UniProtKB/TrEMBL annotation:
Taxonomic lineage from the root: Bacteria, Pseudomonadati, Chlorobiota, Chlorobiia, Chlorobiales
Domain of life: Bacteria
InterPro entries assigned to the protein according to its UniProt record, in alphabetical order: TMEM175-like
Assigned keywords, A-Z: Ion channel, Ion transport, Membrane, Potassium, Potassium channel, Potassium transport, Transmembrane, Transmembrane helix, Transport
Xref: Pfam families: TMEM175
UniProt name for this protein: DUF1211 domain-containing protein
Membrane topology according to the record: Multi-pass membrane protein
Swiss-Prot/TrEMBL catalytic activity: K(+)(in) = K(+)(out)
Length: 206
């Protein structure tokens, strides 16, 4: 690897946590029970699992985007620091927790207690966006080399601009979860897609 090896172990460990969290998400999609299939048929029973599909898709895309941005952050720095381990650990703590609210939303989105599940779900994404912003703020202030290339500096500015908006947007979604569970869940997916398809660097990182 061309870069210094200071951050390699940290990235490898983080990749493992991301992979496990993404894999656990699919376990929340349950195979329809025979009793339900006997009453409604297999096709209708599969369609009835739409809350699970929504929660799985939203969480998977969100974790994927976070993983990509995590990789992007570590391409801009080539050294670590004691505090970086803890900021990175905070982000991984939030990411590893995502499968739990995903399971709750899958199970209770069309339940009378949907508000509790939706609030925890959007609140988890709010906490995750704050932790990613905190990780980047520390990295950009303390670990980005003063002699970094102009391209790296431009990308760092882009990241700063993006992460400035993520926590306020997820905070609005969190507030909305107290009003409409479905709208809150839908906007979580919309934000995930927005961050997935927008905001990439002007020049490739090859």
């Amino acid at each position: 690897m061309h870069r210094d090896n200071e951050t390699v172990r940290l990235e490898a460990f983080s990749d493992g946590v991301f992979a496990i969290a993404m894999t656990l998400l699919v376990l929340q999609i349950k195979v329809p029970r025979h009793e339900a299939v006997a009453l409604k048929g297999l096709a209708q029973s599969i369609v009835a699992l739409w809350p699970s599909y929504l929660a799985f898709s939203t969480s998977f895309i969100t974790i994927l985007v976070i993983w990509i941005h995590h990789h992007w952050i570590f391409k801009l720095i080539n050294r670590d620091g004691h505090a970086l381990f803890y900021w990175n650990g905070l982000l991984l703590f939030c990411v590893s927790f995502i499968p739990f609210p995903t399971a709750l939303l899958s199970e209770y989105l069309i339940h009378p207690d949907a508000r509790v599940a939706s609030t925890l779900y959007s609140g988890t994404f709010l906490a995750t966006s704050i932790s990613l912003f905190a990780l980047w703020r520390h990295a950009s202030l303390h670990l980005l080399s003063p002699s970094a290339s102009e391209q790296k500096i431009d990308e760092a500015v882009q990241l700063t601009n993006q992460y400035r908006y993520a926590p306020p947007l997820y905070f609005l979604v969190f507030i909305l979860s107290f009003i409409s569970e479905s709208w809150s869940a839908g906007l979580c997916l919309l934000l995930a897609l927005t961050f997935a398809f927008g905001g990439w660097p002007d020049k490739g990182n090859h």
